[in-house]
Amino acid sequence: MPMLLIKGSYHIIGARPDGDTVHFTPDDITEWDLVGGIHKVEHNAGRARLRLDAIDALETHYSRTGPEVHQPLNHGHAAQNELLRWLGFTSVTRDAKEKVTAATPTSVPGWILTRGAARDHRCIALAGRGTPPGTSGTQIFVDAPLLRTTVNHHLLAAGLAYPTYYTNLFPDLRNELTAAVHQAQAAPAKGLWPDDDTLNGATVTGMSSITDDTTGAVILPKLFRRLVDYLNLGDPDLNGFPAFLDQAQDKFWILSTGQLTTGLDVVVEVLDSKVRMTHPSEDLVFAD
Description:
- The chain has 7 helices and 18 strands.
- By secondary structure, it is α+β, with helices and mostly antiparallel strands.
- It folds into 2 domains: 2-185, CATH 2.40.50.90; 196-286, no CATH class.
- The strands form 5 sheets. Strands 1-2-4-9-8 form a 5-stranded mixed β-barrel. Strands 12-18-14-15 form a 4-stranded mixed β-sheet, with no helix packed on it.
- The mean pLDDT is 97.
């Protein structure tokens, strides 16, 4: 799979990195102009937000439709801390709102592989550290061995994030990531998997059911975000949740059936106050 290689450095001071988002600045900021796709990468003097491709870590701060909330923080913080440790930050100081106020070192060198930006103009990328695997600003072929050198693969292999695939990622790379996920899920399961309620079902009687650090359900972040948006409408009754999911118009493929469908209600089951997905996240591929 061909992807654009960009050499640069990671920066976290003044930001609120979570387990799948971090800031990156190319050595040559004009290389942002080489990123393909219909959306431009938004940056400030070169510094841009990365959205790590193919993974979704538990939300440590989400506020799209209401007050800021988070998923149970132990797994979100574990992914966040491992991302920064893996990139090369040895000491990180945060304030009460989790904004980084100091870090050692202040930046670390690295490289990214990308094919485009998301609708919110974050660069969607595979992220690596150390010496880049080619010449910055050029297209290089990304195969499974190269994928294994990225933090995206590392976080899935460690069980610290959910796989969340989009059509921009080729099947061979997707299969490699899914294999890493299944290894993390195998007994003894790693990271978040022993606590995962996505397929077993989460009892949702209000916002605290999915946000409380002690009793909150651990579920796929995409499902969490949809539940938060629904609950922010004011009625905790879940009878209307399937219709709400249908209105969101998420378009995706179910790999195991080959079905192209629209609306997460197709793969989400609601029984009284219990919500569960009927397919694991690695069986779904979302339209970009």
